[in-house]
Automatic annotation (TrEMBL):
Key words of the record: Isomerase, RNA-binding
A GO BP entry: enzyme-directed rRNA pseudouridine synthesis
UniProt protein name: Ribosomal large subunit pseudouridine synthase D
Organism: Rhodopseudomonas palustris (strain BisB18)
Record-stated family: Belongs to the pseudouridine synthase RluA family.
Reactions mediated catalytically: uridine(1911/1915/1917) in 23S rRNA = pseudouridine(1911/1915/1917) in 23S rRNA
Domain of life the protein comes from: Bacteria
Domain RNA-binding S4: residue ranges: 186-243
Active site annotation, chain numbering: 314
Positions of region (Disordered): 1-168
Bias type Pro residues, positions: 137-146
Keyword presence, Isomerase: yes
Length: 501
């Protein structure tokens, strides 16, 4: 390809018409442009007649570039007004001489809509370029996008259909049943619960109280124990169908189930130990609508069997409550309590300091009923309804001479036994509404006026071998009192430091 000769330039550049004044048709053809003199033929004097442009002090290196393969090419500073006539240098023009933006004609300026018709290059916009982008450099290499992995689909497992339990109560008729060998020595109320899982505790108490249930043709009490071969007459009952599993539980029953689960300290296939909170009754009574025995209704198994209470705690007493989940476990645990092979340890905060600091309390207790309440009184041997009760106690720590932390071990299990015995020796349990009758005694500041009695620990043989050993933490109101009094509950072992027999 032949090299095109350079265009000739006239010696007098000021006579050249301005770009805007030349018509497009007056432009000489390409062939005639070759007759112009060569750029190299122009003398240095002719080029030096141009007005000098103000030199830029910021870029002094420009003058040195004239020696690079350009021969006699003039300096940048000497090329003043190449095609603009007498146009002043850029530095000589004042800012005030420029037309204001508002004075410029807008007709000659292309509109935004016209600009969009121009083809756009493939170069990225300024906002799309990376921060470290330099003009002339290669764009950064962008790794190819990998396809997003599809979410893993878990295989669908069909759940077995749940048995449909009818909501209609199941009517029964009068029945006469014989006590079997497995039911020997079982209480009447436990016997009815085992035979009819849907029967509520209040319903059992009602039919026994009215005399509708007969044992060998005679009236019976709910606490009476049955013997093998006895006949029991069951009156007409209306039983609620037992619930199977937890899928049929209502929203309220699910909350009850969650509350029970939160109380569990120990659980296996046969036994469960709950941390009963203070203020929750174990069994129902007059005016009691929420109790542990009723809450256990939601834990019936597939056969309709409900967990059974093995022993009881007072409503205001907190701590370990033993529950049997099977009939076999209930029989074994009840026998352990009856044979006194179970060991229970209680903690209490009492008024004053008992003397001696370790001792044994042995009295007879009898129930004393009044219109307002029922309490246990100290009775004499031979009194009607009197039962022998034995309690061991030991002082663990004291707070001055006003309060004492005592460890209690009941040998027998009478109603209100610990509360009645501590009041009997003149050191009633703090916060006891029934037995605290000390005159001129004020509760220290910061202590709540609630019963400070905890079923701390229970040790009992497991029905299938081994030992059940469970401890319960202090309830919130007792923990507050222990902290205020500076009693270190975490450094005391309730079994090793338990009172001796």
């Amino acid at each position: 390809m032949s090299k095109r000769p350079p265009r000739e330039r006239s010696t007098e550049r000021t006579e050249r018409p301005q770009r805007s004044e030349r018509a497009f048709g007056e432009r000489p053809p390409r062939g005639e442009r070759a007759e112009r003199p060569q750029r190299a033929e122009r003398s240095f004097a002719e080029r030096s007649d141009r007005p000098q442009r103000t030199e830029r002090s910021e870029r002094p290196q420009r003058a040195e570039r004239s020696e690079r393969a350009f021969g006699d090419r003039p300096q940048r500073a000497e090329r003043a007004e190449r095609s603009f006539g007498e146009r002043p240098a850029k530095s000589d023009r004042s800012r005030s001489e420029r037309p204001q933006r508002a004075d410029r004609p807008t007709a000659d300026r292309p509109q935004r809509a016209e600009r969009s018709d121009r083809p756009r290059s493939d170069r990225a916009e300024r906002s799309e370029r990376p921060a470290n982008f330099r003009p002339g450099s290669k764009p950064p290499r962008v790794p190819p996008r990998t396809p997003r992995p599809e979410p893993r689909q878990t295989p669908h497992i069909e759940e077995p259909e749940k048995p449909v339990v009818p909501d209609v109560p199941l009517p029964t008729k009068v029945e006469t049943v014989v006590v079997s060998a497995d039911e020997n020595n079982m209480r009447v109320d436990r016997f009815l619960e085992a035979r009819y899982p849907g029967l509520s505790f209040s319903h059992i108490q009602r039919i026994v109280r009215k005399g509708e249930l007969r044992v060998d043709g005679k009236r019976a009490d709910s606490k009476d124990r049955l013997e093998e071969g006895q006949t029991v007459r069951i009156p007409p009952l209306k039983l609620d169908a037992p619930k199977v599993g937890t899928g049929n539980l209502s929203e309220a029953e699910q909350k009850t189930m969650a509350a029970l689960r939160a109380m569990i300290l120990y659980e296996d296939a046969d036994v469960m130990v709950l941390n009963k909170p203070a203020g929750l009754a174990v069994q129902g009574g007059s005016g009691t609508t929420r109790h542990v025995d009723l809450m256990l209704e939601v834990m019936r198994d597939a056969k309709g069997q409900k967990p059974r209470l093995v022993h009881r705690l007072d409503k205001e007493t907190a701590g370990c409550l033993l529950i049997a989940k099977t009939r076999f476990a209930a029989t074994a645990l009840t026998g352990a309590f009856r044979e006194r092979s179970a060991r229970k340890v209680y903690w209490a905060l009492v008024a004053g300091v008992p003397k001696p600091k370790q001792g044994r309390i042995s009295t007879y207790l009898a129930k004393e009923e009044s219109e307002d309440d029922t309490i246990m009184r100290i009775a004499e041997h031979g009194d009607e309804g009197a039962s022998h009760a034995v309690t061991y106690y030991a002082v663990v720590e004291t707070s001055a001479s006003k309060l004492a932390w005592v460890s209690l071990k009941p040998v027998t299990g009478r109603t209100h036994q610990l509360r009645a015995h501590m009041a009997h020796i003149g050191h009633a349990i703090v916060g006891d509404p029934k037995y605290f009758n000390i005159e001129n005694w004020q509760l220290p500041g910061g202590l709540q006026n609630r019963l400070h009695l905890l079923a701390r620990r229970i040790v009992i043989p497991h029905p299938r071998g081994g030992t059940i050993d469970v401890s319960a933490p202090l309830p919130p109101h007792m923990l507050q009192s222990w902290n205020l009094l500076g009693l270190e509950h975490d450094r005391f072992d309730p079994i090793e430091n338990a009172p001796e027999e």
